[in-house]
Write a structure and sequence with these properties.
The protein folds into two domains: 85 residues; 304 residues, Rossmann fold (3-Layer(aba) Sandwich), CATH 3.40.50.1820. Strands 3-2-1-5-4-6-7-8-9-11-10 form an eleven-stranded mixed beta sheet, sandwiched between helices. α1 packs antiparallel against α2 and α6 crosses α7. The chain contains eleven helices and eleven strands.
Length: 398
């Protein structure tokens, strides 16, 4: 025992100089990013002010290039700062309670087929040391999975929520395997730095097949088949749990959620959701406005929509669906029909995360910070959220 303690102390001592070197390097990188960001901001201001004496087309091109440069610089600075702030954070674990209608699978724990019934359990996920907000590192991994019966699932949720913790119920989107969805929810719930219990509903998306049209069609059908099982899960949580419930749907998961909420609207006596968050929803904008928005507003105290015009996955989905707008695409005509005091639209078009830009809320430290403000009840016009009103939506400034 003494030998083991001595070895641990020696490893800790060896790690400290390395962490100091990393801190010094990250501080220099953050400083360089900040200097370039200030330079890009100044250039953007000058271009916006220099509108007289130039051809409109020439001015528009200069403004567009200045905005693109500013967006890129802001993204680099945000990630550098998150890496610096994460340095020194200890390794920890997050328990993700889950329900799924996937069939059990030896390789992926649960596979891409619908088993026709629900399974429950709790997965423990390791958050590595020095974890930066928004990152989904390779060593942020599942360390254990414990199957549960339904009653034990409800008991575990009740015990975890305790007195002051709410439930963050998450329904993932297209192309998400079961392990990926578990890891992503663990990362989001950890990075929010709020007392929430992460509860995952994982439907049988195929996963690992980005840009495959055949698998997209498969996932659309799997999502349609999963709305009734999710309605069963959500209804039981609302009936049996007393903690506040926030429901968050990403991408194609918005269809699972919307259909399930329509089913539950027919059930008497269910309490409303405290918050419904739609992140990059891949659902027809007109269909949502006509059919699902009234249900959502009647079943949740507030609805928050995160959208982005540069979301390449939704651009592709729009093409696949005959050119009809996706709700998450932030197109002006579609948003006009959704105006309501309790439906708030956050436009993240001027926030770069990656080449696809479809998972901004989970992958961006800036949007994770805004989501945190949503969950603590801050209104969309609150100063701490730093959003700019633009017609029917609020924009993140470039």
């Amino acid at each position: 025992m003494l030998y083991a303690l001595t070895m641990l102390a020696a490893l800790a001592a060896d790690a400290e100089p390395e962490r100091d070197r990393l801190r010094d390097r990250y501080e220099r990188q953050t400083q360089r990013c900040e200097e370039r960001l200030i330079e890009a901001e100044g250039r953007w201001v000058r271009v916006c002010a220099d509108v007289q004496g130039n051809e409109p087309r020439h001015t528009e091109r200069k403004q567009r290039r200045a905005v693109e440069r500013l967006i890129g610089r802001r993204a680099r600075h945000s990630h550098a700062q998150a890496r610096l702030e994460g340095l020194g954070r200890p390794e920890t674990t997050v328990e993700v309670v889950f329900a799924t209608n996937r069939v059990p699978d030896d390789k992926q724990l649960f596979g891409a087929r619908d088993q026709g019934r629900l399974s429950w359990g709790v997965a423990t996920v390791r958050i590595p040391a020095d974890h930066p907000a928004g990152a989904l590192e390779r060593d942020l991994d599942i360390v254990s999975v414990q199957p549960l019966r339904e009653a034990a699932f409800q008991a575990h949720v009740a015990a975890a929520s305790g007195v002051d913790q709410g439930l963050l119920v998450y329904v993932h989107g297209y192309n998400n395997s079961f392990p990926y969805a578990v890891r992503r929810l663990a990362q989001v719930s950890h990075d929010l730095q709020l007392p929430v219990v992460p509860v995952l509903f994982s439907w049988p998306s195929h996963g690992g097949t980005w840009m495959s049209m055949a698998k997209y069609t498969y996932d659309e059908n799997a999502a349609a088949r999963s709305s009734a099982p999710f309605a069963e899960v959500l209804g039981s949580l609302l009936e049996e749990q007393t903690a506040p419930v926030v429901l968050m749907a990403h991408s194609l998961g918005s269809r699972v959620v919307s259909e399930a909420m329509s089913d539950l609207a027919q059930r008497d006596g269910l309490r409303p959701l405290d918050e419904l968050v739609l992140a990059a929803p891949d659902i027809d904008a007109t269909v949502y406005a006509q059919r699902f928005a009234p249900v959502a507003l009647g079943s949740a105290d507030r609805v928050t929509l995160y959208c982005a015009a540069d979301d390449r996955a939704l651009k592709l989905s729009r093409q696949v669906h005959g050119g009809y707008d996706r709700l998450g695409s932030c197109r002006e005509d579609s948003l006009d029909s959704l105006q309501h005091p309790r439906l708030e639209v956050v436009d993240a078009s001027q926030l770069y995360v990656d080449l696809i830009d479809h998972d901004k809320v989970a992958g961006s430290p800036r949007l994770l910070s805004d989501l945190r403000q949503v969950l603590v009840g801050a209104p969309i016009h609150a100063d701490e959220r730093g959003l700019v009103p633009q017609g029917p939506r609020y924009e993140l400034p470039p």
